[in-house]
Design brief:
By secondary structure, the protein is an all-alpha fold. It contains three helices and no strands. About 0% of the residues are buried.
Length: about 90
Amino acid sequence: MNDSMVEALILAINEQTKAQQAQTKAILALAESNQQLIGLLIDDSDVAEDEPNRVQVYLNGQPKEEQVAQIIKATSDAAQQDYFHGPRLLGGR
């Protein structure tokens, strides 16, 4: 490899690193907003308990309790697998 090819490769790797860092930041923000959404869903489920005869159903047809349970499980699984930390998102172990 000549010097210009090496420099081009270094520039490309630097740009890739910047893009991955931005992607990681966006994924972490998404994970954080998902955590907040779960909190809202759980808070809302407490309100729904005041109306025991009313069954809330999501667009996919699942009852609210089932949907909330799936969201909590998925978030818990992701946390246990350490997906909410940046190095893991970039392929680090």
